[in-house]
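Lab notebook, bench 4. The sequencing result for the construct came back, and we need a structural model before the next group meeting so we can plan mutations. Quick request posted to the team channel:

Model the 3D structure of this chain.
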Amino acid sequence: MMNVQIVTDSCAHFTTPHFLQQYPSVMVVPNRLTFAGKTYRDGIDLPLEEALRQIGSQPYAPVIASPTEADFVEAFTRASQGADAIISIHASREMFKSYQNGLAAARQLSGHCPIVVIDSQTLCAAQGILVRVAATAAETEKNLDDVVRIVRGAIERVYTIYSVENIPYLLQNKLMTPSRGVLSTILGIKPFLSVEHGYLTVMEKVRTRAQAVDRLVEFVVEFADVDEVVILQHKSHITEQTRMVQDRLAVDFAGQFVPFMMYSTTMAALVGLDATGVVVFEKEFEAMDDDDF
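Done. Here's the predicted structure in token form:
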């Protein structure tokens, strides 16, 4: 069996507790957050709950800086010790520079072990799911090409939407135009964002929280064969909106509990607090043999 090490940035957010203990082959290179004149390493200098608390106390969105090329050179050098190959999974290149920096670092170390750099085309829990897919495949597959194929296939099966309350953060991050932001504020409209082709974009709007719950539930039930569903929120204890989504999904997915978790510091920096998201990981389609007909 190959020894494949997995590297990612801290935009990735893992849906299971103690993930890094469960998968010691995974290494996370931290983003840097700057707000209130100070810079912190994401997940190291500031735990998630403290980071969200500080974000909530600031009038402006923090600045997120991806790991540098030098950061990835150091990470790849450490990961390569005893490894047969490295797979590096990065936040969407359309939103962050992690992929470009990882690619440049991999070129510097081309004489070491093989390094495959992958654009996840997403972030937060969806990116974390892809990291888990890679770590699991690395334990079972016999060659690097098969692991990479499985990860790239999974990218096409992970979907995310968010119901967002914080219009100022969307404006600061240029996820919404000023004119649409003013109109949404005046009319009390809550935007919905989706991650599509690596971009976080406004897809539609609703007027009430009840309508937001309806749309989140509708999004999930559109999928015929679901492997995993996770609700994302900004608090460690369950919010009323999350509870409503859980209750509705319990009817459509009888016997399947849909967990919730806090979304990442990166997502909070993009959409602010008081957002509710849903990540769906669709099961892999299995082609039928002729004998099945």
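The chain is about 40% helix and 25% strand.
Will bring this to the meeting.
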